[in-house]
Prior knowledge:
It holds the Pfam family ACT. By secondary structure, the chain is of the alpha/beta class. Helix content is 33%, strand content 25%.
Amino acid sequence: MPVLVMKFGGTSVATLDRIRRAAKRVGVEVAKGYDVIVIVSAMSGKTNELVGWVNETSPMYDAREYDAVVSSGENVTAGLMALTLQEMDVPARSWQGWQVPVKTTSAHSSARIEDIPPANIMTKFGEGMRVAVVAGFQGVSPEGRITTLGRGGSDTTAVAFAAAFDAERCDIYTDVDGVYTTDPRVSAKARKLDKIAFEEMLELASLGAKVLQTRSVELAMRYKVKLRVLSSFEEQSDEAGTLVCAEEEIMESNVVSGIAFSRDEAKMTLVSVADRPGIAAAIFTALSEGGVNVDMIVQNISEEGRTDMTWSCPVDQIKRAEAAIDAAKKSGELNFDDLIADTDVAKVSVVGIGMRSHTGVAAKMFQVLSNEGVNIKVITTSEIKISVLIDRKYMELAVQALHDAFELDKAA
Ligand code: ADP
Ligand code: ASP
Ligand code: MG
């Protein structure tokens, strides 16, 4: 029988009632003849609560125990979903990651899926089970420890199962009815897209649109998974939601197709470092070895052989960055006057594959921000995106103004 993957996010399984509603959706697909793999998140708020408990117990926690704790929310919803389906006379059972097994790397709290052998679940399908309910977000390391895939990781579990089981489709049920031109919670004018190209979705996700975890889009692109985002709260047709697909499947699109933003940014500046070959290497090697994910980088014009180096990184990595730079100073690799951290910044990005063939997007973006009196602190670009770092208090304003200026409320 054809296999379908259906993933339900936190808000879609937040109460027993909602689990019943989701189970009914699963029942509809079973009745159509699919064997279904259901991937569930923890009830909304649960993972945050578990993370909070870990931090309170042990601020410098052992990442293996962090994973043991924070993966547990999904175990509860997987069992409850299987019970709900059984109550509806749908043959179902739950699976935790290690039982499948979902084999991952041992990078605790941000592990990558390496392999999902389908044999165990396929055997059960062969014996008449119709639904395998799998706890999302978790796997097992080569050492036999429980791992998690990073926040939002159930999306990745879902796509990885779709690839491993050659599923007909991977449906991501969430609390919005598809992928929008920007987060509908920030702009009332955000427009739902019927289709979005993998590459655009990849950029939007990595630039902060949390509707899909970045890694899930990468996997869908690599394994050509038919990926759809849709609402678990509305009646659905086969055309509902947003299809994430190959560029060739989209006839018309705007030059800019979406705007993403991220609040969790910080800007750090190393004041007055020597401007000589090897200095950037020394700074960014220290940061990388300290586990800091550097995003944007700018180097100022040099004066009298000294320069300032600025970068952005996630705001919760500032302490690590300071420690890494401090260590490099103590070891004599770096010499500078000061290290300044600005934590009140946000990143706003415009994304669109149309930028490959259209000029003027950057000019227009900067003009719009200037008209709103928003100062740009750092800029980065790639072939299909332009990102700026601005004061956080202007983030919503910038998103809305850019959405208007690029007329994203209107279809191409
Ligand atoms: P789930 O718990 O189902 O995984 P998430 O909260 O992780 O749901 O992701 C859905 C949320 O993503 C939406 O509620 C919305 O606020 C946010 N979001 C951000 N950018 C977008 C976008 N471009 N389109 C749709 N939703 C977006
Ligand atoms: N429950 C996990 C989280 O909140 C994984 C997920 O929902 O995708 O990050
Ligand atoms: Mg999510």
